[in-house]
C-alpha cells in the first residue's frame, strides 16, 4: 500500500481518528526510548545514542520514498524532543530572577521552533500533486467567469498588461467578463478599459481596501466563478482552461489557488551574490506547503491567481474584511462552512517580484499582522466546521508568522553570557555534543530532504533575520490589539539606477549587529585578558562561536538591503522562442528570441546576416500566432535588440499574449538542484561578498533613497474625515458580436466555403469532410478536354459559390455558426512538462473582447 | 523510380519555383539523379537552375524522336540537376506540337516514364498553369501530383474543386500532395486561410512555403534558394518540402 493511500485511509476518507494510533505509538515509543536512556546513561552513553540516531538517519535516508521521509521526520522529532527535555531537565539555572527570565525566554523560543518543526512536518506529510481536471467536451457546459483585477495606486502601464492578458485568455467570449476594479478612481483607467472593451468598476468609497473593492464588484457581476488577479500578476492564456475543470468536476470546491510566480528575481536573489542559484523565497510555500495543505484539504487563498466559486463566497458574506489578510481569512471561513479548497501547483500567471527589500518588508509586515489577527480573532483551533488536520494546517500557516521574537532571541542570546555573565544553558561540552549536535543534524538534514529543491538550508534563517526586527513590533501590537491595522499596497516595477544601501530597510539589523560585534569583542577581551576557569573558558568560546553565527546571519540580512543596480523598467524574461524575423524589405529569417518583455526583445541573428539589420529599421517578428512589429534599437554581433511598436491596442494585446500567454512559460520555476545542506551553507556564506560591492558609487551608504513612491496613503475609513464626494463608476464590458470573430473566422472560412452551402442551408455547418458536396455528376473527365476549374473560381456568384462571400463577411452566418465550431480547432500544449498527466487539449478562442478584430471587407 | 508533377489550376502561384527547388533539394540531399522537365512553353524552369537565357534548345522540337532529346539535356553543375527545357518556340508551333501530343500522348509520357524507370532517377515535371494538353498526356502516369496553391482566398475554392474530383481526377488520392506557397503571415487573412487550408488538407499537405523576398532574389541570381540564402525561411521551408517528398518516395518503394 502506498503511503498516500495509507494516509488517506488514516485521516481523510473516513474520519476514524483512532487509526492514527499506530503512528502515534511509534512516535511515542521512539521518544520514550530516548527519554529512558536520558535518565540512565552517562554523558558518554548519551553521545553514543546521539551517534546512533545519526547512523539510523543515514540508513533510512538511502530510501527515497515518502514512507522513509515520514520515519525520518519521526526520528527527527524524537531527537529534538530529547534535546528539549534535556534542556528543561538538565540545563536550566535559576540563580537570579534575571537569569531565570532569560533562560525561560530562550527555552520558549526553542519550544516555538520545535512546534513549527512539528507542524511543518505534519503539513508536508504528502504534498498533493493535483493535476488539472479536464473540462467537458462541449464548451456550452463550461461555467461563466468574471475576472477581477483590483488596483489601487499602481501604474496603468502595469495594469493594462494584466488586463489585456486576462481578456485574451482562452475561454468562450460570451462566458468571460474582465473587470478592472479601480480604487484609485482614475479616468485614464476608465478610458483604457472602454477602449479595450473591458469592464471598469470604481466605487464611491474605499472602505475595506482590496476586500471591499472585490465585494463591491461581487454585487455587480454575475459570473459563476470569479478569478482574481492582482494587477501585476499576468495570467497565461491557458489559465482558465487549466484551472476551472476542478470546479466542474467537484461541486464542493469553493476555491482553487495557483502559485504566485515571479519572473524577476526577488530581493534575496538579486542582492545576494549567490541569490540566483537559490530558489526564490516563495517557492517553499507554493511548491511544498500549499500542496501539503492541499492533501489535508486546507490549502488557502493567497489573494491572487485564484478562482473562487460565487455561491460559496456569498455564503460567507464575501471576502473577509475583519483582517488585513483577507485572503487566508476568507479561505478559513469557507472551510468552516464545509467547502473544499484546491491547489494546483502549476504557475499559470507571473508577475514582478517586490523589487526592493523595503517593499518586501512592508508586505510581510502586513501578512504577519493579518495572520496574527486571524489567530487572535478567529483562531483555527476554536470555532466550528474544521477537521483536526485543517485546524493544524491553518494554525501552522499563522503561527509561522510569529517567528520574529524567537529569531531575535536566538540571535542575541550569546550576549547574555558574554556581556552579562548569565549562564542560560548549563552544560558540559560533552553533553552539548551528545544533545545539541544530533538535534541540529536531524533538523537540518530531515528538513533538507523534505524541502528538496524548493528551499535551501540556512537560507530560511536569512529570510527570517531580514524581517525579524521589523516584525517584532507588529507581532506584539497585533497580539495585544488585533483590531488595529491598515492595508499597504506593495509597489512594483521600477528601476534602481545605482546600487545603494537601503538604510530604511536595514538599520535595525545594522544597530543589532553593532551590539553583537561589541559583545563579541568583549567576549574576546574576557577570553584573553582574564584567567578563566575551564568552565567559563569553554562557555566563552562556545558563546563566541554562537555570536559569530548570529553576526554572519545579520550581515547577510544587511547585504540583502544593499540594492543592486536594476536597469530595465520591464524585467526581461529569459526564453528560447523560435520566431521568424521579417526585414523591412520582406526577407524572412528564422531565428530565436533570447529574452522578451512587453517593452521589447532580443533576437539572435546569424553573423552572416548582420548587414541586413540597421538601427531604426522597422522589422516584424512572425510568431505562430501573428506578427509583432518592432524597431531595431541596437545591433550586436550575434543578436539585435528590438523595441515593440504598437499601432493599436490590439497589437499591444498581441505582444502581451506573446510574452505572457504561453501555457508552459513558467514550467522551470522549480528547477533547482535539490538542497544539499553543505552546499547551501557555502552559497550563503560566500554571499557575504555582496556587502562589499560598490558600483561606481563609493558613498552608497549615505546616499538618499531614489524617489520611492510613497507608501499607499491610508484609505479613508468609513466615518473618518470626509473626503471629496465620489461616485461609483461602472462600465460593463463591451461585447459586440462582430468583435470576437477573429479566430472563428479562421475556422469558419474554409469550412463554409468548401461546404458549398446553398444560401438557405442550415446555419450549423457540418464537419467539412462530410459536407463537401458530391462531385456534380455528368462532368466526367473527357479526354483532352478537362473541365476548366479556374473558370469556377473566377465566376463570382454562380449558384454553387455563394458561401464564399458569406464566409468572408462578418455577417450573421458566422456568428450563428460560431458556437458549433468552437472546440473544433484544438491545440496541444506541452503541459506534460507541467506535470499534467496527459497532454491537455487547449481550445483557442476569440481573443480580446471589444477590440476590433473585424476583418476589413476591403482586403477581399 | 517516380514521376513527380508540379501542377496548379491557377497561374503564377510558384509551380516553377517549387519544381526547380524541389529538384535541387532532392538532388542535394538524397543523392538521387534528378531530371527536371519543363512542359511549359514559358520555358522558365531552366532559369531557376542557372540556365542560359539565350539557349533555345528543348525537347519539344523533337517530340516523337526521343533519341535527339539528349541534345537538349543540360546539367546544372551547381545543383547537379539535369534539366530538360521545353525549348524556345513560337506560339504557333507550340500549338502544333500540342495537337501532335493530343493525338499521341504516348509520345510524351512514354519517354518520361522510361526516364523515371531507371533506378536512382527522379523526374520532376513543371507544367503550364491550368489545364493543358501536355499535362493531360502525362497525368495518368504520375506517381506524385504536387498541387501548388497560393495561400490566398481563391485557393480555398480551387482546393474544393480538386477534392471533389472536378480536376485531376485521373490521379488517385494517395498520389496527391499539396504545397501552400507564398504564405504571408503579415496579413491576417493569409494566416487564417493557411491554417484553415492546412487543416482541411491534412496529411496530404506536403509543405508550406512562406512568401519571402529571398525567393525572388534567388531567381534573379538563377540559383536555388537553398544556395542563395541557406538561412532564409523559404530555404528551410523548401528543404522541409523536399524531405517530405523523399519520405513519400521511400514509402513508394
Ligand atoms: N514563396 C515565394 N516568395 C516570394 N516570391 C515567390 C514565392 N513563390 C514564387 N514567388 C515568385 O512568384 C513569381 C511566380 O513564380 P513562378 O514562376 O514559380 O510561378 P508559376 O506558378 O510557375 O507561374 P506560371 O503559372 O506562370 O507558370 C516568381 O517571380 C517567383 O519568384
Ligand atoms: Mg511556371
UniProtKB/TrEMBL annotation, chain B:
InterPro entries: Cellulose_synthase_operon_BcsQ, DNA_Partitioning_ATPase, P-loop_NTPase. CDD domains: ParAB_family (cd02042). It comes from the Bacteria. Gene3D superfamilies: P-loop containing nucleotide triphosphate hydrolases. Signal peptide: none annotated. This is Cellulose synthase operon protein YhjQ. It comes from Acetobacter syzygii.
